[in-house]
Amino acid sequence: MRGIGSGFLARSPEIARFSFLLVAVSVAGIAAEYRFDSWTTENGLPHNSMKWLIQTRDGYLWASTGSGLVRLRRPPLRRFHLQQYPGILSDRYVSFALLEARDGSLWAGTRDRGVVRYKEGAFTTLTARDGLPDDQILRIDEDAQGVLWVFTSKGLAQWRQDRFVPVDAPEFRNNVVPRP
Fold it and tell me: Which of 3, 71, 86, 168 is the most buried (most CB within 10 A)?
């Protein structure tokens, strides 16, 4: 019985060195393909807890936090918050409620002030005054036809023709929302 190292590579040190080099270059190439970064309040995040993270078609990462929205690509991070942008009425974002729609607009749900839409460089907040059943958002989805669905703590609404239309769906009342 042969032991470890007594095979073909042990008898051909040049091939063994070449094989090791080939494996090392392959691993280095794979590692170079990925980059790992960590973001905290120390380097720009408004809060150390991200609620949701998505990548939009333009390559940006958007994060919703308990203290604002952040757009990431490369440092520096860009924070969007209510003190700086008049179209934002709350910085208290929730999980399951950050989405890029087919038209390229970004939608973010808040805990207390409806949804924030970012479209063509401007923020707009839409609330119960705009047709949402409630201002506490639980989830935002888009269906295969491109219809935006907003789940709130008191019901469901669709975004159609630039306005919210409440949907009579008793199964989605009283905080009963299916999770993704």
Answer: 71
